[in-house]
Amino acid sequence: MIHTQMLNQSVPDFQLPATSGKTFLLSDYAGKNLVIYFYPKDSTPGCTTQGIQFRDIYAQFQALNTEVFGISRDSLKSHENFKAKFTFPFELLSDAEEQACTLFGVIKMKNMYGKQVRGIERSTFIIDKNGTLVKEWRGVKADGHAAEVLSFIQTL
Fold this sequence. Notes:
Elements: E1 15-17, E2 23-25, E3 33-38, H1 45-56, H2 58-63, E4 66-72, H3 76-85, E5 92-94, H4 99-104, E6 107-112, E7 115-120, E8 123-127, E9 133-138, H5 145-153
Parallel strand pairs: 3-4, 4-5
Antiparallel strand pairs: 1-2, 3-8, 6-7, 8-9
């Protein structure tokens, strides 16, 4: 499991089903920087805002040799609809079995309408071109976050 002490260490290879009929395999992206952002649920207001903001500056990430991936526990069908509705240029990864969620330690107990529910804490991780975890944000506010991530990538 990745915790703060995993910063500046290699991220273990993992594989998840992705939109567009693809399979994400971490090791396929050696030589690129990766932005991996975990979000609670497709088509909810905060997650939509966050996705749109990553979409709108995606070309700037690409120009910096950086790929962006969103991960939630939603199904691929849900992801395809979300991606199509907001024309996201990046793939969304389905983590129904919480493989990556567990690896990155993003599942938390949250209060939802007065009930305790297990869910994804909005979190973003930067893996550099050598496969090293170089930055993490946890408990992220959706609005404005993509620009903050881009600013960090510009320092790599």
